[in-house]
Model the fold of this input.
Amino acid sequence: MVSTLFVGSVSSAAAKPEVVTYKNCTELNKVYKGGVAKSASVKNKGGKTKYKPYVSKKLYEANKKSDRDKDFIACEK
Done:
């Protein structure tokens, strides 16, 4: 007798996380302490930061209104 035990849930691995538009930098920094960068190669114009930004082009585009210095990093800290 052969029995198979499957533990876990079936989820769609292809499902991508939803891109969230945050109301302001305070809300965005609760999730992404260093802000959100458009790409890994961008440099911060404002000088030294405490945290490294999370890199996501889609997330940056959704929150680029919060990139006040136009350095392609939204809400850097």
Q: What stands out?
A: The longest strand covers residues 36-37.
